[in-house]
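Complex 225.
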Amino acid sequence: MSTFKNLIVFGAHGKVGQHLIKLIAKSSVNATAVVRNDEQAATIKEISSGGSNITSAKLDLADASVSDLAKNIKGHDAVVLTVGSAGKNLLQVDLDGVVKAFEATVEAKVRRLVIVSALFAENREAGLKSGLRNYYIAKHYADRILVDEFGDKLDYTIVKPTILTDDSPKGKIRIVQSPNDDYGTITRADVAQVLFDTLGFKDTFGKSYDIANGDKSIEDPKTYQ
Ligand SMILES: NC(=O)c1ccc[n+]([C@@H]2O[C@H](COP(=O)([O-])OP(=O)(O)OC[C@H]3O[C@@H](n4cnc5c(N)ncnc54)[C@H](OP(=O)(O)O)[C@@H]3O)[C@@H](O)[C@H]2O)c1
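Predicted structure with NAP bound:
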């Protein structure tokens, strides 16, 4: 059971984010779900069955200053970032937006941060092959800044899933070892479960994982060793 009990989730209204909010709603963990408007806040309320452990805050990562973000992060004990602009605003959201969130996390004196990136984002060749070059460039530099500039200030975990699907959760994953391996797919529900479970796994601090559905239990800390 994670020692982190008070989360702030950026991208809570996204597809992975909503799976994560549903998991949190059933747990003893509290969360602030970051949304962009009142309609999204209503959806969060609905999917968390009105549970009092989930509240919403309205923030836009492209517009918010580091100090706005820090004010919202303060008082939580971990930050989850499952944000993405779906290619529409890569510089302001996928790159600068998340880097502002790293800075704000430090300013708010929170150490734990888990972020969703993309399979082999550290590898430029993988980005080229994917056909999503600008998307991969944004993910690459955001991850690189997190590791190089914030590695000693944040206990981060970078979760890098392969292609996401909306299939039912399988509960099992594998760590993809090389861009030349078969990288399959992974369900968004399983990615949410990985985010939730790894929060409390100390062995995942300062590490990144390329993941696909596989045969290892998401809930088992050994899967991430
Ligand atoms: N699709 C894939 O196959 C794939 C593969 C690997 C990794 N990923 C990554 O997985 C993550 C989650 O994917 P998903 O399918 O859950 O994506 P999604 O449904 O598009 O969710 C992305 C979330 O980011 C939020 N967002 C976008 N711009 C924002 C801004 N300016 N300020 C604050 N929040 C903002 C969205 O808000 P709204 O709800 O308002 O739109 C949404 O909640 C993303 O980082 C994505 O890049 C995707």
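The chain has a mean pLDDT of 95.
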